[in-house]
Backbone:
């Protein structure tokens, strides 16, 4: 939580009337130390098969986000591990605030670096020229859209590395429609945050407010653990960690997950019968009759799932 | 849990009839290696605005303890961080046994050091002269009062560093009226302790009983993590860590927290309306109408809170 | 979870029809790099007072397993700590999947080592000669019996060190009647595993499937943390860690635990009365009347417990 | 060392004839994922009081570099700590290869990120358009000038995070005139590197060649530990760690260090006399005669030092 | 150092007259908990192209050991990394006692496990039947041959995990002709050991003597870090870590290293000329004239090296 | 090194004229938060067989200090390990500045705690009443005597936990006659300190000066790692760690070490002959002739050593 009633935290003063907000959606991308233009974003995400936001960020359709709520890290591993050059998309080692809530959304990336006044002063002056009163965590937070997951590179900082407390966490919950937060850094007000219905993946908790850092990039490529994250990636978190899925693979991951889920269903059903050794059934049955049984089961269930989906969409 | 049925743990034999207990409240302070006299305690806590226990320890009033149950680490940070020379009052990195129960109470400090027989033999002899059969963890535990939080410097020891198991944990719960335990060391019987309704902040768990240590101080200044703790400090723990608040700041912390809580309430209420960017509202609104709205809200809620409190006290 | 639909993980292909399974119960013990014959097992567990499985593994009776569900680490420490040469039977530092479920069963041990193709090729060839299609994790898993706890030395490996995902975890639950899993390594599919009603003690979680390791021993002596585990040991896990109890001490541990539990009951009852200092009651009372009271209480409760047990067995 | 005789390491093939090299000095700044134009560099280092390289990078004069060889971390701390917003310029925790050689030079920064093929393919294509055969570690290394310290953000990667082996380390020694290397990552061939006369600050050593990463920036702002490093910073390393000094403070740091060194000289001289308590002399003497003595000593030595320097320059 | 003058360390008494020693070379392999027969050893090292010791252990020829003194970890990585199933042969993270001395020899493996008296008593009884007074560290040490490197799995134990002090270290130096020691555990007497001219790779140092462990295998397959080590492996250590090379690859590793060393020589020679960018020369030159130059250089130097070797052998 | 030329570090201003120094030797013991009177010191070190300093601290004779320069951690372990209640006298995990110089001296203990202004203000006021201008690190340093080792409990603090830089390190070298420093904290100016001829055992290095701490005890019982250190203990450090030997055991440790050293001499001499297995000679020979040989050797060498010592003393 908690507003510092007498003074804003060092170097993070309060800003910006509603009038500025329209500006925010396009302008800030050029005001920070690290910039990544709309054209850069389009060039580097050229394989994105979906729409884009006005600033060039890939926009995964809502129905795919909805389906992604059933994904686990293993579902995704299966698809991405086979793709040369995409084996670094998984990060773990987080403290997970609501491990029972799936984290799903489009990556909205933010980068901080250790404060260095000569750089920050120039960046703040450039921001001011563009009508932004102050570059700070809220500059980015106020740009969030429904379905966005805020993904923050705070370089693992604990003390003074608290991206939000419970008030701004609450704001993010409202703005993103509960999509979530991933921060390679910390939060404050864990008691307050624990009561708010949005998943969060954090490194630590600390009572200090954010400070001694500078906002250096909004929707630029960032690093989280051993992972390179791009604006617009599909973010999926489960009890193990977080996957950042390039949009061009989202559909394949989801389709393959359908089959995996059906296979899991069938495998457990057979195990529950108590008649088989694990090797009779899993990875795949060797007995041709069981193979056939599974094949039919898979077919039937896939059809059911697809029918349910299309009915749901009609409504 | 669990009593060693055939033999007391090495160097911790069983002692002390009820007759001795009256003695315990005054005498032990002079029997350990490290001593801190009643006069020392009064000198070093001269700023304490409240009553004192007979042994000189500051005694925060019960109604302030009650109010402190709503404090979070951030509430306290706001006040203490501004005070030169009081930035080391927070310790974290604990395993928290009941994170959903607030830890609140008056610090009752205990210090252990690695066993060294020449020193321990002298201390035990001195203790015996004062009518104490044996200096041990229970010597301190039997001095606890309602509202005390037992704060133990066990120098991070895990194996043999278990201040209590579930039996003595149960005793502490009864004696302190569920106030709590902080130990820079370990406990045993986590299964048993988990069923007992008192918060505990510990470093580790181990099946060994306490051993290979010596009790070196009761209600002396101790160190917990990077914090200096004094007997009579207000101890407050939340999901993040523990604050040790010198009594002279307790009232200010609590009054300021009232305002912070109201500000949080109002901020979230405004965010929930969905009409504002975060910067319109938080840290503080720039729009004069919103400023006025908040000012009135704050006034109204402060009055309500105070009214409720005074009514409660009347009852 | 989740079957890799297009290809088996490297070096772990799918095998074995039901016909092979009879073989599995006896043959595999001679096919791995590290072997431990039936005679070895009998020689080294000569003090086992109970029956044995056909392969020589000690078989603790079911009623003792049932009683062991009330044990905590401290109950066991009390007995084993007094036995010269048995102070290394406790391992901790695990992530516990269902901390509220007691882990109890007979140790079924499995050892993996880092893959080295020259050794693995020979071992696989030897296995094939004995009718085993492939040495792999499922080779061991398909040998599990009701009441077995699978204890796996995966040398702390996280990435590629996942002994099972949720499908095989489900199989183990069915095969062992929910007894449990201890792995000095990792699992995958934590979301799936969290929904399955069986306790698990693991070091880490990872989305990768098992790989880059070789199965080197089934029911051989293994090391878990600082502990030497033998096939047939009584495995007991609580919120703190896991004890591996040699069968020759199982009865003594359980009988002594009965007394400890009664002592805990009585101690807390007295504390709840609020009339005593902790030293009046705990470790043991010094007042002869209290000593007598406890003695009678102990006697009465022991008789009750024994009566209940014998009635239960009659049913 | 050692050339992979049969194949280039994955994604790092061999490139670039001498003809390309002229190009390298200007072009690469626009070919990587993260770009920082000449104008950016000039804007953000506007306080640089010295010349610049053709690409805009501040160019500290050689005589200041020479003087900086006497600096220690404490000399620098004294000056930078007093400057608001410049308290993050120190990084430590390195394995230091030649701790007896001072590390001094102008920062040449390089950034790597975890490999992600979609981004790397675009960057490589853009590089090719600019006449660069392949973006790789050698692309940056071949741009080094005498006096440059290569400062590499390899995000702490050990395995596959080896910026160079002994061959390229040798090349850097030749190209930079032994200035040095700082890598938040690893090197290979420590035996070979130990024999080469250039200081290096590394996180780890590993036999793997660089791989599974992509070059994302040359002379862009980077992060090393808790420090933001700019191209052209004065880099100074001693037995403790590395300071990155913004060019605008270099002169002040060096002048102040002269006084500190004289003060150290005088202090130790007085201590060696054995007539004083430490407080008589250090921090500063309270006795007016000693104050006067020191004042004269300082004056005399400063003049000597300046004379020596100006004579040296004349030669 | 240092003999405990009044009593042997717990469970390690003193044994064995010279008459027993002949026995030691063959018998002990069957007396420990974990056994690996001569036939096992031959089966699992069937690809060994060299002679064997009487107990079946592969015996790399002395001239290859001599050549191996020039190997570095990178030389070996180049060859082994290309072999499917041999990527786990490197272990690091050691404290290296004489980093300037190459570690080279044939692996003599020893395994310890945490003491468990029931198992140790049986093993000691079996040993006694075979004429061995006591299984202990010296049982293995007294079997060492010139050229052997003692490789000990002490499961990372520090306290009580000291395989030797300076007296036995001195003995190993004499017995192995200074080949060396690798222990995943500790040593004592580092001051004394530092003065003895033999390389050692250790995890820690401690003043305690070895204790609370049992010798469970001599010349059995063991694990060191993430590596599986076989008796007879070629052990090579440099400033980075230790490689365990299966004998069947020794010749290839050494031949390839010759070429790597020549390539390094030539590369540095060209760099020293100061006329080239690194990419002109390294990995390999693109200019056909330089390619030719290198080709000729390689040929000439290989011939020189071979000539020198054959001359040396003639002498 | 290095004096902060413009301002003393926060809360550590410069003090104390030479006139005060006489006072310092007796007075400060009562001015800090934690006090330990001369009588306390005498009571708790009642077994000290040697002289005492005026403040009650045991004073080991110089000739024993001289002999202690040959001690290693193992020599001491042998004696202390057998004494019930003295198994905690060894601390390790230090960065050792001059590992080739033995650390030997009498413990002069100092304790710091995290700064807390209310306590520090009272302590400073009490100090002032006793004629001490300011309690600070130099207050203790100026009390050091020849042969003292400064042993500082700085609770492991790195940043701001630097007990000295090179100037005060130089002073300590002069004052203690090169005896040494042990700090559970850090130092600054490692480059400068490395050039000063005195051993130091430290936890870390940092460029910050000491700050945010308060001096809480001089010559009081302190804790270093898992060890309780008393003023006047014999401090001995080698390449492994530091032993704190109670004075009552110093003579026994040294006499026993003589025998251990002779045993080591003889053992290595026999090993060097190459005729024996290790078990023939070490721990102790079983062959009666060798037993006799050793017995005579021991006798002869003991006499030589004693003769040399008495001659040395005569001179």
Residues:
């Amino acid at each position: 939580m908690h507003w510092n009633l007498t003074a804003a935290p060092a170097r993070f003063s309060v800003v910006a009337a509603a009038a500025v907000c329209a500006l925010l959606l396009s302008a800030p991308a050029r005001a920070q130390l690290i910039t990544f233009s709309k054209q850069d974003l389009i060039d580097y995400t050229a394989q994105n098969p979906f729409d884009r936001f006005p600033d060039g960020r890939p926009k995964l359709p809502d129905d795919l986000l909805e389906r992604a709520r059933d994904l686990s890290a293993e579902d995704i591993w299966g698809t991405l591990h086979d793709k040369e050059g995409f084996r670094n998309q998984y990060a773990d080692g987080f403290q997970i605030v609501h491990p029972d809530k799936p984290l799903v959304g489009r990556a909205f990336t933010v980068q901080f670096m250790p404060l260095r006044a000569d750089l920050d002063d120039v960046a703040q002056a450039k921001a001011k020229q563009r009508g932004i009163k102050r570059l700070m965590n809220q500059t980015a937070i106020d740009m969030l859209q429904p379905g966005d997951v805020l993904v923050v590179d705070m370089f693992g900082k604990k003390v003074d590395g608290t991206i939000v407390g419970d008030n701004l966490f609450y704001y993010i919950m409202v703005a993103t429609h509960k999509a979530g937060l991933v921060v390679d850094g910390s939060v404050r007000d864990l008691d307050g945050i624990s009561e708010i219905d949005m998943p969060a993946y954090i490194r630590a908790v600390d009572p200090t407010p954010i400070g001694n850092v500078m906002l250096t990039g909004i929707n630029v490529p960032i690093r989280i653990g051993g992972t390179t994250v791009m604006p617009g990636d599909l973010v999926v978190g489960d009890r193990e960690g977080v996957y950042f899925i390039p949009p061009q693979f989202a559909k394949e991951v989801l389709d393959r997950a359908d089959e995996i889920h059906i296979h899991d269903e069938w495998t457990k059903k057979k195990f529950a019968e108590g008649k088989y050794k694990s090797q009779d059934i899993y990875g795949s049955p060797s007995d041709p009759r069981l193979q056939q049984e599974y094949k039919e089961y898979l077919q039937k269930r896939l059809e059911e799932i697809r029918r349910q989906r299309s009915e749901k969409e009609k409504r």
